[in-house]
């Protein structure tokens, strides 16, 4: 297959003006006068944890910054299957972290999956850390890899409060240890660049221009990093407000710079700006900054005012959906948490169906949470939803979550009514509406916040096994998936 030329999205997707418009032009916001309340849906993925090509070894079920353990062929097959499903189910874009690695084919493999995405009409959004997470070229010998840039210029590292470079890894217990050799193969660890240094700012702009000149991407998701904040004299003098593991003021500094670099090459590219936060106001006190997933601090709105018009602002919804510390309830999303600025496109993301953030599990059934997320997002003025999309829909839990994402907030189901979803989508897949409700009830036995529920699994398995003969083969396969998940918790 002939690869499309970089910047050639408009030639392959009718109506797309990738190559049109003035340099640095601001894309229009996807905000129909009348239409469904949710107009944008994205999947979020790490390359090393995406497993849509089944029965191939080397995938990871948890973690960020892991090594890539599958083959180049598997990388291309994974995303080929993922993009095809997205095209058939109206998922607009897929965010790919770790898009560029030497270990799965580098630029050539990335071009190959970009071509697939273009042919399917799905935007491939490259995940890019500006001060962290590898830069545009996540792992390899490229000069546009942040790790290489910092090792060649160690004075440009971010430093901690003790004056040490921020450069570390974590073990399986999340204990921190220094990276002995960041050039070697294996997990990349966490290393950060000082955002105040002009050399690092120039590196970001040059890297992003290179990225869009060499790949026909649909956009970029940018982050300043949530694993540490530079405490050098320049950064301390620039900032007025406290920080946690991330800084709103660093976002206000870096996101306009990065957006301008992208738009200078690809004016219609989507630029997704991560906040690590929820839009609900959260005042932790004058000397404290909220951590990951909590609400925005009082100074966040001043930072948001610096975000370029037309970008996507991505928020995090988990702590306001389900408690990760029962019996305490989840945090409350009120009217004060309505998203600001009508010239921005707001996205809400959640870690449903993963091993992140709460005691759930990869592929868990999270339809109730997806419904709640979308209902509350619509009320707050959010126009788009991002869910993790690493698990193949062969896992019935993931399939139901993905289908809920496509249905809730759509023209067919604008109020995210679960009954409409059960009757029109889930019921036919599982053998009827009543079966859907029982499927969800049995799946809920695996909620690790309530370990006593595991005692109910043997009875649930007997119930499931007794119904299989009455189901269609497709419905029975989905029930068998649930039965196997449940049975894995029963001692042999």
E-strand count: 13
Q: Which shape, going by the Cα principal axes?
A: globular
CATH H-level superfamily of the largest domain: Glycosidases
Give the number of domains.
2
Which radius of gyration do the C-alpha atoms yield? Answer: 22 Å
Q: In which order are the strands of the major sheet placed?
A: 1-2-3-7-8-11-12-13
Distance between the termini: 50 Å
Helix content: 25-40%
Overall average residue pLDDT:
89
Can you characterise this structure?
With 492 residues, the protein is of the alpha/beta class. The chain has helices at 9-12, 72-88, 106-120, 146-152, 198-214, 233-238, 248-265, 300-304, 367-379, 396-407, 418-430, 433-443, 457-467, 473-487, and strands at residues 40-46, 93-97, 123-129, 167-170, 176-178, 190-191, 219-223, 270-274, 278-281, 295-296, 312-316, 345-350, 384-388. The protein has an eight-stranded parallel beta barrel with strand order 1-2-3-7-8-11-12-13, surrounded by four helices. Strands 5-4-6 form a three-stranded antiparallel sheet, with no helix packed on it. A two-stranded parallel sheet has the order 9-10. Helix 3 (106-120) links the parallel strand 2 and strand 3 (123-129). The longest helix has 18 residues, at 248-265. The model is unreliable at 1-33 (pLDDT under 50).
Output the keywords:
2 domains, single chain, TIM Barrel, three-stranded antiparallel β-sheet, 492 residues, alpha/beta
Brief synopsis:
This protein is of the alpha/beta class and 492 residues long. It has helices at 9-12, 72-88, 106-120, 146-152, 198-214, 233-238, 248-265, 300-304, 367-379, 396-407, 418-430, 433-443, 457-467, 473-487; strands spanning 40-46, 93-97, 123-129, 167-170, 176-178, 190-191, 219-223, 270-274, 278-281, 295-296, 312-316, 345-350, 384-388.
């Amino acid at each position: 297959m002939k690869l499309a030329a970089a910047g050639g999205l408009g030639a392959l997707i009718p109506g797309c003006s990738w190559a049109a418009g003035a340099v640095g032009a601001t894309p229009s916001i996807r905000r129909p006068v009348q239409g469904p309340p949710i107009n944008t849906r994205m999947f979020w993925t790490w390359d090393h944890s995406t497993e849509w090509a089944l029965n191939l070894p080397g995938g990871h079920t948890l973690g960020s910054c892991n090594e890539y353990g599958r083959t180049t062929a598997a990388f291309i097959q994974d995303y080929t299957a993922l993009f095809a499903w997205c095209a058939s189910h109206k998922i607009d874009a897929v965010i790919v972290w770790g898009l560029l690695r030497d270990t799965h084919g580098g630029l050539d493999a990335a071009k190959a999956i970009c071509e697939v995405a273009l042919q399917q009409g799905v935007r491939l959004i490259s995940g890019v850390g500006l001060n962290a997470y590898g830069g545009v070229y996540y792992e390899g010998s490229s000069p546009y890899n942040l790790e290489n840039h910092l090792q060649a210029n160690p004075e440009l590292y971010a430093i901690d409060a003790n004056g040490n470079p921020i450069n570390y890894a974590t073990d399986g217990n999340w204990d921190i240890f220094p990276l002995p050799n960041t050039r070697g193969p294996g997990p990349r660890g966490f290393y950060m660049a000082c955002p105040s240094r002009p050399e690092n700012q120039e590196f970001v702009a040059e890297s992003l221009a290179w990225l869009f000149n060499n790949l026909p991407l649909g956009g970029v998701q940018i982050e300043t990093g949530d694993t540490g904040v530079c405490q050098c004299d320049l950064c301390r003098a620039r900032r007025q407000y406290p920080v946690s593991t991330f800084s709103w003021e660093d976002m206000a500094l870096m996101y306009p710079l990065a957006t301008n670099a992208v738009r200078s090459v690809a004016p219609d590219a989507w630029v997704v700006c991560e906040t690590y936060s929820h839009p609900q106001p959260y005042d932790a006190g004058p000397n404290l900054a909220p951590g990951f997933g909590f609400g925005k601090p009082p100074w966040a709105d001043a930072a948001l005012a610096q975000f370029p018009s037309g970008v996507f602002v991505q928020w995090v919804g988990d702590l306001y959906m389900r408690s990760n510390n029962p019996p305490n309830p989840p945090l409350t999303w009120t009217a004060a948490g309505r998203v600001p600025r009508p010239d921005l496109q707001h996205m809400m993301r959640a870690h449903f169906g993963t091993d992140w953030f709460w005691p759930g599990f990869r592929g868990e059934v999270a339809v109730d949470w997806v419904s709640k997320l979308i209902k509350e997002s619509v009320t707050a003025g959010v126009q788009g939803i991002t869910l993790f999309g690493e698990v193949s829909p062969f896992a019935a839990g993931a399939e139901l979550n993905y289908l809920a994402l496509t249905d809730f907030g759509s023209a067919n189901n604008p109020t995210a009514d679960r009954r409409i979803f059960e009757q029109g989508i889930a019921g036919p897949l599982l053998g009827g509406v009543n079966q859907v409700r029982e499927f969800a009830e049995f799946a809920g036995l695996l909620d690790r916040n309530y370990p006593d529920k595991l005692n109910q699994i043997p009875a649930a398995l007997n119930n499931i096994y007794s119904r299989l003969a009455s189901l269609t083969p497709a419905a029975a396969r989905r029930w068998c998936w649930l039965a196997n998940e449940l049975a894995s918790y029963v001692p042999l």
